[in-house]
Amino acid sequence: MGATRELAFTLPWAIMNPTAIFRGIREEGEPDWFCYCAVPSKRYDYRTGESRLTQRGRVFVVYVDADRIIYNWRWEPADASNGDLPQNYTQRFDERTL
Fold first, then answer.
1. How far apart are CA 89 and CA 10, in angstroms?
2. How far is CA 66 from CA 26, 34, 79, in A?
3. Are 33 and 64 in contact (CB under 8 A)?
4. Dihedrals phi, psi of 23, to nearest 5 degrees
5. Which residues contact 43 (CB under 8 A, 6 or more apart)?
6. Which of 11, 24, 35, 74 has the fewest CB atoms within 10 Å, i.e. the most exposed one?
7. Residues 2-17: what's their mean pLDDT?
8. Is pTM, for the whole model, over 0.85?
């Protein structure tokens, strides 16, 4: 239930309220793909579906391919220097577009 709620609520919120958008996913070797980053105020327990406060030091990321199809999303550790961005963002992406 939690994964379903994350897909239904957290993912759309992250796409509409990004803290950053990066172009060029180096680990995938895809210069035209995007990563949307956001820090929603809540998350969902994967087993029970219950709403919980977002864990401090976590960022929600959504990966979008060149055809603008969402192909992956997940919570990742936040960067130590900027809690709104994923860990090692300067090495992982080609450019920041937002």
1. 21
2. 14, 8, 26
3. yes
4. -115, 140
5. 6, 10, 51, 52, 53, 54, 55, 58, 60, 75
6. 74
7. 97
8. yes
Gap between the Cα atoms of 47 and 33, Å rounded: 31
Give pLDDT tens digits for 66-87: 999 999 999 999 999 999 999 9
CB 10 within 8 A of CB 60: yes
pLDDT at 24: 98
Which amino acid does the sequence have at 22?
F
Which string of DSSP letters, residue by residue, matches 14-74?
HHHS-SEEEEEEGGGTEEEEEEEEE--SEEE-TTT--EEEPPTTEEEEEEE-TTS-EEEEE
CA distance 60 to 76: 6
